[in-house]
Design a protein that fits this description.
Blueprint: E1 2-3, H1 5-15, E2 19-23, H2 27-39, E3 44-49, H3 58-71, E4 76-83, H4 86-95, E5 99-102, H5 109-125, E6 129-134, H6 156-166, E7 170-173, H7 190-200, E8 204-206, H8 214-223, E9 225-230, H9 232-247, H10 253-275
Parallel strand pairs: 1-4, 2-3, 2-9, 3-4, 4-5, 5-6, 6-7, 7-8, 8-9
Helix pairs in contact: 2-3, 2-10, 6-7, 9-10
Length: 281
C-alpha cells in the first residue's frame, strides 16, 4: 500500500527500529526492494534522488514505482531524496511521490528554515511528508567532499529550533556519515544522535548508510535513527549479480535479470533484518 513517510517512521520511532530507504533507478531494483519487503513483512521506503535522475527521469521512476507501491502487501513510501530545487520537488509531488526531501543544507540557516517551512506547508496540504537536512552530509569523493566534515555536523540546539520552525516530519543529520564508499572506517558521533533525537522528538535520518558496520547501524537506530539510506550496496550487488550470471553462461538481458534481482534482494533482506523492521508491517 502506498503511504507517506510519517505513517512508517512514526511507528518506527515508537518501536525503536529503523526502516530502509532504497533508491531504485530501474524496475529490477524496485522489484528487489518491494518483493523483499513483502517476504519479510516489513515497511519500506523506496525512490530516487536528484543526483540519480540522469539514470532515470522522475517521470519514468514514477511510472513503475507508484503502481508497484499501491499493489504492495506492505506499507511503501515513495520518496524523492535530496531534492535540490523547488521545481523538481513540485514535479515529484505532482507525479505522486508521497514524501520529499528538500535539501537546502548548503544554504544559510535562515534560508534553509524558510525554504523548508514553505515546502512543508505545500506537502502537508497534499498529504505528503517532508525530510529536511541540517548540517551537511558530504561525499567521500567528488565535488561534495568535505575537508573537515566535523565543521558541518548537526548542532542539537539548532536542530530543535529548525524542527519547531519548519514542521519537518524527519531530519537528516550529519554525525560523521558521508555518501558513497567510505575510504576509511567512519566514526559516528552517537552521543550527538542521542542529543538531537531528544531535542527534536522527530525521526532522524542517516544518509551514507552503505559501508557502515552492523554495530554502527544497531547503535544509531537505538539512539534515534529511524530511516537509513542505502544505495551503493544494492547498486554494487546488482552489478555483481550480472557478473555472476555471465559467468554462469547467461547471454541475454532476460537471462541476467534473475541474477541481478537475487543479488540485490540479499542486500535488502540483510538491511531490513539489521534495522529491525522485519515483521513490523
Amino acid at each position: 500500500m502506498l503511504v507517506n513517510m510519517k505513517e512508517i517512521l512514526g511507528r518506527a520511532r515508537e518501536g525503536r527500529y529503523g526502516v530502509g530507504f532504497f533508491n531504485a533507478v530501474n524496475v529490477e531494483m524496485a522489484r528487489a526492494v518491494i518483493e523483499t519487503a513483502e517476504e519479510l513483512n516489513a515497511p519500506v521506503i523506496v525512490g530516487t534522488a536528484q543526483v540519480l535522475l540522469p539514470a532515470m527521469s522522475l517521470e519514468r521512476v514514477a511510472e513503475y514505482l507508484i503502481p508497484m507501491a499501491k499493489k504492495a502487501k506492505v506499507p511503501v513510501c515513495v520518496h524523492y531524496d535530496h531534492g535540490l530545487t523547488f521545481e523538481k520537488c513540485m514535479e515529484a509531488l505532482q507525479l505522486g511521490f508521497t514524501s520529499i526531501m528538500y535539501d537546502c543544507s548548503t544554504d544559510g540557516y535562515e534560508e534553509n528554515v524558510a525554504k523548508v517551512a514553505e515546502m512543508v506547508k505545500i506537502c502537508h496540504a497534499m498529504g505528503a511528508t517532508v525530510e529536511g537536512e541540517l548540517g551537511h552530509v558530504g561525499d567521500n569523493e567528488g565535488a561534495g567532499r568535505l575537508a573537515d566534515p566535523s565543521d558541518y555536523y548537526t548542532d542539537p540546539a539548532m536542530a530543535e529550533d529548525f524542527v519547531k520552525r519548519t514542521g519537518v516530519d524527519a531530519l537528516a543529520v550529519a554525525v560523521g556519515n558521508a555518501h558513497g564508499d567510505y575510504k576509511f572506517p567512519p566514526k559516528l558521533d552517537f552521543q550527538r544522535i542521542t542529543d538531537i533525537s531528544q531535542c527534536t522528538g522527530v525521526p532522524l535520518v542517516l544518509h551514507g548508510g552503505s559501508g557502515l558496520s552492523d554495530e554502527d547501524f544497531r547503535t544509531a537506530v537505538r539512539e534515534g535513527v529511524c530511516k537509513v539510506n542505502i544505495f551503493t550496496d544494492i547498486d554494487k550487488a546488482g552489478k555483481a549479480g550480472i557478473e555472476e550470471g555471465l559467468a554462469a553462461g547467461a547471454r541475454s538481458m532476460m537471462g541476467l535479470i534473475p541474477y541481478e534481482i537475487a543479488a540485490m534482494k540479499k542486500v535488502v533482506a540483510n538491511k531490513i533484518t539489521l534495522f529491525g523492521s522485519a515483521g513490523k508491517a
